[in-house]
Amino acid sequence: MREGWYPTITPAEHGDSARSSVYPEAVCDLRRRAAPVTVDARPLAGPNGGWPAVTRGADELFLLHGSLAFKGFDGARVTRVDTRSWRTLWTQRLIDTAATREWNYPGGIGAHADGFLYVIHGYRAARLDPETGEVLASVVLPTGQAPRDTTYNGFIVLPDGMLVAKSLYRMPGCEENGFRALSRGGLVDTPSDIVVIDPRRMAVVTSIKAPEHLLGRITASVHRGVSYIYAAGKDHVFRYRYTAGALALDPAWGPVRTRQPGETPASAITTGDGWIFLQGNAGPAPVPFTIHAISQDDPARTHRVQPFAGRGRSFNASKLTYDAENRRMYTTDGLIGQLACFDFDPERGFSRRWQVAQGSYSFLVLVGPADERVLVATRLIDTPMTWLLRKQLSRLVPWLAYMIGKERVVWRHPDTGAVLAESPDLPPGLAIIPGFAGSVYYPSVFKGVWELKLRDA
């Protein structure tokens, strides 16, 4: 759902308001070239820990950074990178959370159809000038708990240009930042606030309370001519109908319970082809996650699959990826260390197409048009020390092994899983950002941002 977004390769986290992670305009001719193709990696010192990140014009990359739980990350910043000269043009600091002692958590950034950048950080939204980084307007969002324990994790844009966001809370008095506030501090029962923001006035026009605390990022879908908002709570999925700036819980659809015994709550929802898709274990769990497909027409019509059944402890905070044009779903579990592809049939449900050993905690992306699509995903590289940490200490620190390890970015054929290209070893990263002329951008946690480019034949 690209309406409301700037016409570019990556205007939003996950590409669109449906969070499809499909980038059809991204150039990728790998399926017509002899594999393996060499990948060149070009680093840029800083910014560290960039995510989300978006493109705009043909040489513009904007990274939201500074909002992780590690030393040196002390509040949201936005940096513009010129992707031709591969240099930083400006950095705008939005807040110093070390001074305010507010929860420092990755919010969201997007390139709106009106040409401006919009940023969510903490419990604030801001409009930025993409040329200079100047904050042109801002608004404080509702908080159902103390503001210091409140953040809004991302936003979407509806076809009429309105922004929709929802709040996320950490335990009162918690001092942890980033994702650790959720994994160590425990699950909060405070209902989330869902807000509609008018970007022209930078004002909240609608604010309603959700039935549960909503953890996964909010998602939108236009289905049968109606705009819907989907949200994953602690145990259930909810749907809201959107009309002219107003939201109303849809009592005819759901709520649908999705959390299974032993699982932690779900990550963000993906919509497509008349269905919504989500998976559990956005936090570490003792059992593998379950994937749910739920019809947008009838919430009682569902399909489930447990892609890594019997594999033990599980964790991936990132959502799955669904290719509606090819009816194919992709998922990974960083703790289990597997990547899988399933075909989806609305009548029969999921059928496994292929599975490979490739652990990742990052989002899976699909680039290229429907008949030339390529899957791009990170692959965790184990050393003896990181293997020991992953196997022996994962109960306490499931991501620690990969903060001291390495990763590669791998391009695979979606039909077979065959490797088409693979990057050199890279420092641990956060996401894959499809860019211009076949490039992808790879923001690392501590070693700046990298441009990865397929070498010409």
Characterize the structure shown:
The chain is mainly beta and 457 residues long. A hairpin with a 6-residue loop joins strand 30 and strand 31. The mean pLDDT is 92.
Features:
mainly beta; globular; 34 strands; 5-stranded antiparallel sheet; 457 residues; Methylamine Dehydrogenase, Chain H; 9-stranded mixed sheet; single chain; 4 helices
Can you give the helix content as a percent range? under 10%
**Total of domains:** 1
Span between termini: 34 Å
Determine the strand fraction and express it as a percent band.
35-45%
The best one-word shape is: globular
Examine the secondary-structure arrangement and name the CATH architecture: 7 Propeller
**Quaternary organisation:** single chain
CATH class descriptor name? Mainly Beta
Tell me the strand order in the biggest sheet: 1-28-29-30-31-2-34-33-32
Average pLDDT, rounded to a whole number, is 92
Gyration radius from CA atoms, angstroms: 20 Å
Helical/strand content category: mainly beta
Number of helices: 4
Poorly predicted runs are none
Largest sheet: 9 strands, mixed
CATH superfamily: YVTN repeat-like/Quinoprotein amine dehydrogenase
CATH topology: Methylamine Dehydrogenase, Chain H
Total strand count, please?
34
